[in-house]
Amino acid sequence: MPVPVENPATYVDGFLFDLYCKYEHEDWSSPPAFEQFEGFTARNARAQIRKRGWVLHRDRTATCPECAKALGLR
């Protein structure tokens, strides 16, 4: 019969955002701008995303900090 471990490892939960810029940039070859963010809650992860300068859109796309600045979104 299985015996419980005294100090079991816990699982990690949270949110992971893989952001790709929805705009092409003349200085980029490929792939487009990409950055990954994670947080314990979606709200925490989104706060990190905004702090870094990314813009999230309602259609679930994102704009990188460079393009957001060039387009006047920030």
Protein architecture, described:
The structure is a single chain. By secondary structure, the protein is α+β, with helices and mostly antiparallel strands. It has one domain. It is built from two helices and four strands; from the N terminus they run E-E-H-E-E-H. The protein has a two-stranded antiparallel sheet with strand order 1-2. A hairpin with a 5-residue loop joins strand 3 (55-56) and strand 4 (62-63). The mean pLDDT is 86.
Number of extended strands: 4
Q: How many separate domains?
A: 1
Q: Pairing-aware structural class of the strands and helices?
A: alpha+beta
- Calculate the mean pLDDT score and round it: 86
Oligomer: single chain
Order of helices and strands: EEHEEH
**Beta-strand content:** 15-25%
Largest pleated sheet:
2 strands, antiparallel
Instruction: Determine Rg (CA atoms, Å).
Output: 18 Å
